[in-house]
Fold:
Amino acid sequence: MSEQTFKALVVRETSDGEFNKSIEQRHVSDLPENDLLVEVHYSSLNYKDAMSASGNKAISKNFPHTPGIDAAGVVVSDKSGTFTKGQEVVIFGYDLGMNTDGGLAEMIAIPADWAVKCPDSLTLKEAMIYGTGGVTAALSIQKLEKMGAKPEHGSVAVSGATGGVGSISIAILNQLGYDVIAFSGKTEQTEHLKELGATEVRHRDSVNEVGSRPVGRELWANAIDTVGGDYLANLLKQTKAGGAVTSCGLAASAEFSMTVLPFITRGVSLLGIDSVFIPLEDKKAIWERVATDMKLPNLESYGEEITLEQTPEYLDRFMASQTVGRYVVNVKG
Ligand SMILES: NC(=O)c1ccc[n+]([C@@H]2O[C@H](COP(=O)([O-])OP(=O)(O)OC[C@H]3O[C@@H](n4cnc5c(N)ncnc54)[C@H](OP(=O)(O)O)[C@@H]3O)[C@@H](O)[C@H]2O)c1
Structure:
């Protein structure tokens, strides 16, 4: 990287409405005028990055654009005085990678109050193995705990099990002593899901066998849904009385249809998860948890490392649901 330029993934819209992804040299002076300039060492890939990189204007309105909702790196300068040069910081959510140039680049310029100090017990790479996907898993589990979930109450079902949020959810739940029922469309990944900590692996379509019935048999104490649509509705219908289901994603669908019966006859709760706009204090708190009691042993084994140059190919794989687990991007590699 020269003093004035840096490497970045750039998505460009062509005149016929296509979106092309390539690695380009950009100028630091092209970045938005924000207080905090960070040299990015690691980023990660998330479903939202793939949506942004494919030109989904609900995520990113203006192109050319650099996606990347996660970044971990070293402070170059901070006009706000919050951070000192050389400090290690992590950033996820807010507008990073959406309409503010994101972490799939060697440099980002952001408001200082989007960043938190990297926890002492995590390396920058480990922080990005969690990244948005891992932190969302942790937020989902934390919300179930706040509702009173305990391992002795019974299993936790996890949908989208091989995805970034799903796979880290399984691993953290297992570490905390929960039995996990993993629902996945990738039956060939059964052994991998068991190695992550799933007690049982079922095909994702089996969630939907309850059909149009307003409630089904009570099969799990709590659930973490990452896919939305009928899967979310049918997880709710089969949750034990007093249990809860978290909802963070829409890989299957943003819409679902069901009756209120699981809520009013079984006291089941639906819990929304937002990792993007939660207060900075809550972000600091969840980073501390993933760095302490939720920290996974052999953390490096949960993320496949790729280079910035490989990101166009891997972002396409996300859209085709051909990815498994977390992908950490060695931006400077
Ligand atoms: N609310 C928040 O703050 C927040 C934060 C992070 C992520 N999210 C959202 O959470 C979701 C998961 O994110 P991620 O990064 O884990 O994505 P991901 O790695 O792409 O995982 C999504 C998983 O969902 C399953 N899936 C994909 N297409 C499906 C379909 N059509 N029907 C049913 N299942 C399908 C697949 O798992 P199997 O093959 O194993 O079934 C896939 O691996 C995304 O919608 C993302 O936008 C939200």
About this structure: The mean pLDDT is 96. The chain has two domains: 5-118+298-330, 133-272. The chain has eight helices and 15 strands.
